[in-house]
Every structure is written in structure tokens, then in C-alpha cells.
From TrEMBL:
This is Sulfate adenylyltransferase subunit 2. Heterodimer composed of CysD, the smaller subunit, and CysNC. The keyword Membrane does not apply. One of its GO terms (biological process) is sulfate assimilation. The gene is cysD. The keyword Ubl conjugation does not apply. GO terms for molecular function: ATP binding; sulfate adenylyltransferase (ATP) activity. Keywords: ATP-binding, Nucleotide-binding, Nucleotidyltransferase, Transferase. The lineage of its organism: Bacteria, Bacillati, Actinomycetota, Actinomycetes, Streptosporangiales. Pfam families: PAPS_reduct (PF01507). Residues 280-304 are annotated as: Disordered. Residues 32-257 form the Phosphoadenosine phosphosulphate reductase domain.
Amino acid sequence: MQRCDYLLSQLDVLEAESIQIIREVAAEFERPVLLFSGGKDSIVMLRLAQKAFWPAPIPFPVMHVDTGHNFPEVIEFRDRRVAELGLRLVVASVQESIDQGRVVEETGRRASRNRLQTTTLLDAIEEHQFDAAFGGARRDEEKARAKERVVSFRDEFGQWDPKNQRPELWNLYNTRIRRGEHVRVFPISNWTELDIWDYVRREALELPPIYFAHTRRVFERDGMLLADISYANRGDDEPVFEATVRYRTVGDASCTGAVKSAAAGLDEVIEEIAATRITERGQTRADDRASEAAMEDRKKEGYF
């Protein structure tokens, strides 16, 4: 009898784990949805979902919680990628939530629509009766996310309680919920930012161009470089200048900072990421730098 030894790479192991999670949730829940922003993590999630069900199509829709303050390059990429795959896109609009009086827009120099996404997301989950939402959160991003389980329970109000987490032993996941409850599922919990970029290179995945070095008009606020856009509420003491930058993460442009970088290709970005000791959110998200509890507060409210 011939014996064969198979050695899997780290990416192979991570991919297999993620695919198994996606398949199990798709089998256990009635109406899953994949949160897709057009960012690198959700692009990887989309590829994993493709592989999980190939050659069949992805059996659930994708949803983007749109603040209305997104980078145009990312929205263009989102729409094009969804069309290429023939997926159903659900757009949950923060602007509609504001117009309907569901939320009140912040004012002032540091106003952002990021926190307002909570109500918009929960309303969309209720409207479409989604019972499981796939998210691209990773445990290396921020301390609060390191407290998450892979299948993270949300109560009937959409709230997350870190002290009431269900145990997860090995790869055994508790998928039982009551009517009105739902779960957030994080198949790439055990991935790092560097793993994501390595996978993007291995799979030859296309990303929005703002992930690579380009020239942009920016201004400095709280040690971060923010794009010169109309809704950034730039003050007279915040002069605009041109810089060669790229983005490590994408989101609401009013609070997502760029980093100075000359990394114009995948290899250069991976080399840059491998050398950094600052998390992407810590370096580029103004709303998370406000306090160590900022992310956890929003998670408890129900968004992340």
C-alpha cells in the first residue's frame, strides 16, 4: 500500500478552515448574507465563498452598509465585481436612515457617519430577515475583535455581550438561535493582514486602486492623513497638500486615513506590511483611535 504525505501551506490551512465555516453556516441558517464593502477582507471573503460552492453560484446575497461617504473607486469596484459574479447586492443606505429620522447626523469637525451604520445595518437585517451575516473581521485588527467567537451571537436587539459568549471547542460551532436573534460569522478570524495580502497575491485578486501608492490631496488631522473631500469638515488650520499615499483599509472616507507609501505593487505592499508593527485600524481609523473602548462600544451597540 502506497503512503502519501501531504504538506499544506499556512494559506491552504486557513482557506480550508474558512471554507468549512462558510459551508456549515450556509447549511444551518435559512437566510445568510455576506457583508461586502469592496475592501480587501471582503474581497477575500467573496473568493472563499466562491470556492466553497464552486461550480454552483454563491447561494446568498451580499450586502453593503453604505454611509454615502465612501471612496468612489471602491464603490465602482463593488458594483463591477458583484455584476461579474451575478450576485444580488443589497445596499443599506445610511442616508436613507437619516432622511427617515432613524438616526441623527453628527455635526462638527470630527463628525462621521461610521457610528450611524449600526441602526442601518440592524434595520436591513430585520427587513430582509437575515439570520447570519458573514463579516470580514480579523482578530489581529483590534482588541475588541479578539474577544469575538467565529460564530458570534447577537440578541433580539442586535447587541453583542462579550461576557455572554458561547464556547467554541475546536471547530464545533453553536448555530442555534431563536426567532429575532441572529449571528455574525467571521470565517477569517484567524487570518492576519499579512495573510490577506499573501492570499490576494496567490489568487491574483483584483483590489481597488487606492490600496496602492498614488498621489492624493490630503490634510493632516490628529496625526492622520485624511482625503480632501467636501464632507471631511476640514478647518482653516488644516492645510491641503499633495502626498504619495495608499490605504491599508477602506471605509467612511471622513475618518479613514491614508499612509505615506511608495508601494505601488503587491510585492512592495507585502514587504511594507511585514515590517510594520502598527495595526491597520490603529494607524488609519480616526474613530478607533478616539479611545481603546471605541470599537467595543460600537460592537455592543450591534454594528460589528
